[in-house]
Amino acid sequence: MTEGSKSLFIKTYGCQMNVYDSERMADALEPLGYDAAASADDADVIILNTCHIREKAAEKVYSELGRIRLLKQRRAERGQRTIVAVAGCVAQAEGEEMVRRAPVVDLVFGPQTYHRLPDFVLRIENGEAGLVDTDFPAEDKFSRLRQPSRAQLATRGPTAFLTVQEGCDKFCTFCVVPYTRGAEFSRPVGRIVSEARNLAEAGVREVTLLGQNVNAYHGEGPDGRPSSLGGLIGALSRIDGIERIRYTTSHPRDMDDALIAAHGNNPKLMPYLHLPVQSGSDRILKAMNRKHSGSDYRRIVERIRHVRPDIALSSDFIVGFPGETDGDFHATLEIVRDIDYAQAYSFKYSPRPGTPAAERDTQVEEHVKSERLAALQSELTAQQTAFNRKCIGRRLSVLLERPGKRSGQLVGRSPYLQAVHIIAGSSRIGDIVEVEITGATANSLSAEPCVENNAKQAGNRPLTPAEVIL
Ligand code: 5AD
Ligand code: SF4
Questions:
Q1: Is 142-389 CATH 3.80.30.20?
Q2: pTM
Q3: Under CATH, which architecture does the 6-133 domain have?
């Protein structure tokens, strides 16, 4: 490896928080001369940033490591050295076991210590191996992370994730997050605002605030007192250039008055809310330790729709939680019909070692889980398709994010987070354009630009690298 020509490949599994973490890892290694590699085959450092939330996560990582072992061997035969690291929640859960079972791994580090990555990589470059760091350090990792450079931001397009909160104290009985990500922690408002300003200056127009339990946010505000997520969104919406704000994932218990009010009165806060309910049965919600009932959830949705009638709602569902009966499952279908979702994610319950629900002796049979999942998904897909079809003929604003598959096509997002395909015309990635929706499928919309409203978009902004390849 020669200084300045080293390459890095990060494979990211799981949620948006991992996407954000992977970007921060790339930022952290930039000063050591690591640039993005096109594939694992020609990378000097390979990082698997793993997720442990559902199904056989660890097994998937071990089989990927089997492939990487061969790759590392082939490179070694050519005299090239490869550093292999495993990060994220599987790394946190497996720890030492990982280097024992897969000696190809040089470094195992959990989500709380990735700011130490440059130091680890230097040590491995100097001959150390088998490093494991799964601490939950008291230091604030975010304050030790590098802000991305302009050049790096320019490759990432007009939308960005921004982690504002991490960890969870809720302890839902099915979930590993409180164990792998640790206790809830919120970053101070000032730091988040300065990161968002940096993003805006590099051309980012939409930020999605991330946290496992994002609306439990209580970071220190400018006056030294804790700020709510509503307050943070207010501060971010005053930044020039940031036109759209989203947040995910929320817990129903933490939808406080300020946040609900923001949905009614902050035009930069997009009308989309991912608010997982998990189940419609009060008995199962209690067994899940969700701390809300079906009617609590319905009431919250009613209050949000009161201030923002067009809001697009999304949720997560788990079917086949231990002890779930047909009656419980029907209560889930019922809440789905009552709420009418714009989109949703649904999963079969998967026992996570170390969580209380995994110990229950009332596990539901696999075929029952599969049948329930199919029934639920068919209802959710019908709702999503209906939501999309209702948009036909409407004018919506779309933030253009990337080239489409067809020549001259661009893809962006509506305020409701739907993917929208348009013929670009004079519009560019990063523009927010008015379009008329002309078609809809279950997963996306097609649209035509409304020419008269978009003339003002054509400014003298320099092209980003993503645009130059168009
Ligand atoms: N089994 C199935 N789904 C799970 N989720 C979390 N843990 C489990 C599990 N053990 C789902 C929940 C959560 C989403 C991120 O993943 O629905 O909201
Ligand atoms: Fe897991 Fe979310 Fe429950 Fe926290 S609130 S334990 S992250 S499901």
A1: yes
A2: 0.87
A3: 3-Layer(aba) Sandwich (3.40)
